[in-house]
Fold this sequence. Notes:
Elements: E1 8-11, H1 18-26, E2 30-33, H2 45-72, H3 82-110
Parallel strand pairs: 1-2
Amino acid sequence: MLxxxxxxxxxxxxxxxxxxxxxxxxxxxxxxxxxxAYRNKPLTKQQKRSNRLASGTRSIVERVFGVLKLxxxxxxxxxxxxxxxxxxxxxMCVAHNIKRGMIxxxxxxxx
Length: 111
């Protein structure tokens, strides 16, 4: 789902499709979805390089999702209704950011 404020789209190669590529191009969104190799059609050097550049950004985001799923049970919808689950996700993100901010603050204050 697009909100209209996106500038770039990052995703795993499982989301790669011509239809999605065209949708991103129509909406003038930079396509950073990882390329995938197909049978008898390996990735080119340019595609491998592109994947390597995009995977650095994705790994940071995926790490946060992993923490939220592991420690805050983000993988489960606890409430009925989209609004309540959105609020829960927002609170989880706030809690994660506060905790992460405290860790960074301690690191810089001790140094």
